[in-house]
Design goal:
- The structure holds two protein chains of two kinds.
- Chain A is built from 15 helices and two strands.
- By secondary structure, chain A is an all-alpha fold.
- In chain A, a hairpin with a 5-residue loop joins strand 1 and strand 2.
- Chain A is globular and about 55 Å long.
- Chain B is α/β, with parallel strands linked by helices.
- Chain B is built from nine helices and ten strands.
- A six-stranded mixed sheet of chain B has the order 6-7-8-3-9-10, with helices on both faces. A four-stranded antiparallel sheet of chain B has the order 2-1-4-5, with helices on one face.
- Chain B is globular.
- The model of chain B has no long low-confidence stretch (mean pLDDT about 90).
- The chains are: A mainly alpha, B alpha/beta.
- The interface between A and B is large, with 40 and 50 residues.
- Chain B: Keywords: ATP-binding, Nucleotide-binding, Transport.
């Protein structure tokens, strides 16, 4: 986000931000959490609300790389799926508790993103897309072949977490949909706070600079490759977290979690909501999943409808729903 | 006087094409040196080699005694070498102030993901000073892409200046400017030259002759003259290959 106030109170006037936009920016984490907190009560089903939460978080992670750093990856399912699989395998095969299993998923996804990032960030544009896609497909086929651990094409099953024990003798009943929603939302909120912190940090300014102009950023003294790699790893870790939460939610990890289909829907969700906007990923996830929910009642070819909507957005609303709303607010204030 | 930068036998080839060959020169502190030559003479390649964009194929470049060959480009800024580009090269969607501030930040902190940007107030002070130096303070809140061409060129220089470089490389700073904007830019370079070493590529001969302490002339990738403006103007070889094309010293 390029609207962050860089210098408030430091003697240099910040860029003239519309008041409403500045307030939204300052309170973006609590506002987003407040909206997420009421989702189960305003959406048609709680299952849809949980999916918006998990896929929204997945999109937030992807958006850090695509929207804020300017790198379009077509392989982010690798991190989502790895987070999900490692969490499931840690519980099913190693007998881990839910929390160590989650950590296993996040650390595993982060390590994988460090490897894939190191191999891909030296390429640009379409080559970057292709390298990330190819490496993600490699992970997909490894999971398909290692069926003793992953369940192969049937997916990983048999690791239901019915209750999450917390410190102090408290526990959350994960069989209660609403309790599970807020359990997942707690981690999503932590992730949102973390992302907001990163975007406001000096590193956030560095990734903006790299996105805006790599050549100039390098001449200014930024190690562009290292900046991109760190962004890639943070993005992979967040997608891994979304994957672990998906595993805990579904108690199954379908092989599809690692597929190119999953990699492409996160791109679509980001574009629908608005790349480079903080709340956009959740808007994108909500719109995508709503279309899926409604259209799949009419036809089995619901992807066709999603595809048409996506094309219309790319052609006529390239900044996505939330991105366009922000732009409209700014124009109104400016005029 | 010790040279700030010393270039010895520097060459650069692209496949079989020799863009630069056997260039040797010393750049002394607080002097303005201009690099001139016809199109295709190797001026931009020379600049790119001196600023780390390209590695030299042969020879050595020493800056304050340190060998630069083999260093990654981003390290050059940390050592005190900054450059502007022939084609305006900014962070277009960021504000003028953000453009300069982020450039200052590159030398201070790059991977800090937890602190708030405001934790480094000195960066804003540096940005303020650099914008003041190029006369863009009143434009600080404007988006870089919305500036006039001359202002964008000035912002380029502010981005380079904020690192407080000892060596400033200016690649055609008046490219695309009208007479008034050129005049402002010349005045700015004169001010900067008071306490900085400046290396300049330009085609406007009147400007070069007025600004420079020394001129290097490149032709087909080779250094054919190196001397004061008066000496270079009188050099028959230079007149034949270059100045003859610039009779009006536009």
């Amino acid at each position: 986000m390029t609207t962050t106030d860089l210098a408030a109170g430091q003697g240099v006037a910040p860029r003239a931000l519309p008041k409403a936009g500045a307030a939204l920016d300052r309170w973006r984490v609590p506002l987003t959490i407040a909206v997420l907190a009421v989702l189960p009560f305003v959406l048609p089903s709680q299952a849809l609300a949980v999916n918006v939460l998990i896929y929204g978080l997945f999109t937030v992670g992807f958006n850090l790389l695509f929207g804020y750093t300017g790198l379009l990856s077509f392989g982010h399912a690798a991190f989502f799926g790895t987070g999900a699989y490692l969490t499931g395998m840690a519980i099913a095969h190693l007998g881990f508790g839910w929390f160590p299993a989650m950590l296993t998923g996040i650390v595993g996804a982060s390590l994988l993103s460090a490897v894939i990032g190191a191999l891909s960030i030296r390429t640009r544009g379409i080559y970057f897309c292709m390298v990330t896609l190819a490496l993600a497909q490699l992970v997909y086929y490894v999971a398909l072949q290692a069926s003793g651990w992953t369940g192969g094409e049937n997916g990983l099953r048999g690791f239901t977490v019915a209750k999450a024990d917390l410190i102090g003798g408290f526990s959350v009943n994960l069989l209660n949909p609403l309790a599970k929603y807020y359990f997942i939302m707690f981690f999503a909120a932590l992730a949102l706070w973390f992302v907001s912190r990163v975007l406001n940090s000096p590193f956030g300014a560095a990734i903006e600079a790299v996105r805006e102009n790599e050549t100039r950023a390098r001449a200014c003294g930024f190690d562009v490759e290292r900046t991109k790699l760190l962004s890639f790893i943070l993005s992979g870790a967040l997608c891994g977290l979304a994957g672990t939460l998906s595993a805990l939610h579904l108690s199954i990890v379908p092989l599809d979690a690692l597929s190119v289909h999953t990699s492409s829907i996160v791109v679509m969700m980001t574009m629908l909501g608005g790349a480079g906007s903080f709340f956009g990923p959740f808007v994108g996830a909500l719109v995508f999943l709503l279309i899926e929910d409604v259209a799949s009642l009419w036809t089995t070819h619901w992807q066709l409808i999603v595809g048409i909507v996506f094309i219309l957005f790319v052609l006529f609303l390239p900044k996505g729903i939330w991105g366009s709303l922000i732009q409209l607010t700014r124009r109104r204030r400016a005029s | 006087m010790t040279a700030l930068m010393e270039v010895t036998d520097v060459g650069r080839s692209f496949g079989g094409f020799v863009a630069l060959a056997g260039i040797s020169a010393k750049f002394e502190r607080n002097k303005v040196t201009a690099v001139i030559g016809p199109n295709g003479a190797g001026k931009s390649t020379f600049f790119n080699v001196l600023s780390g964009v390209l590695q030299p194929s042969t020879g050595s470049i020493r800056f304050k005694g340190q060998e630069l060959k083999g260093l990654k480009q981003h390290r050059f800024a940390h050592l005190g070498i900054a450059r502007s580009y022939q084609i305006t090269n900014l962070f277009p969607e960021l504000s003028v102030e953000e453009n300069v501030r982020v450039a200052a930040q590159a030398l201070k902190t790059r991977y800090d993901v937890f602190s708030h940007r405001d934790r480094y107030p000195e960066l804003s002070q540096k940005a303020e000073a650099a914008l003041g130096e190029v006369g863009l303070t009143h434009r600080r809140a404007r988006r870089a892409r919305d500036l006039a061409h001359g202002e964008q060129r000035a912002l380029e220089i502010a981005i380079a200046l904020v690192a407080n470089p000892e060596l400033l490389l200016l690649d055609e700073p008046t490219a695309g400017m009208g007479p008034e904007e050129t005049k402002d830019m010349v005045a700015l370079i004169e001010r900067l030259a008071a306490d900085r070493t400046i290396l300049l590529v330009e085609h406007k001969m009147k400007m070069i002759l007025g600004l420079s302490d020394r001129i290097l002339v490149l032709h087909h990738g080779r250094l054919i003259a190196d001397g004061t403006p008066t000496a270079v103007q009188a050099d028959p070889e230079v007149r034949r290959v270059y100045l003859g094309q610039n009779d009006g010293y536009a």
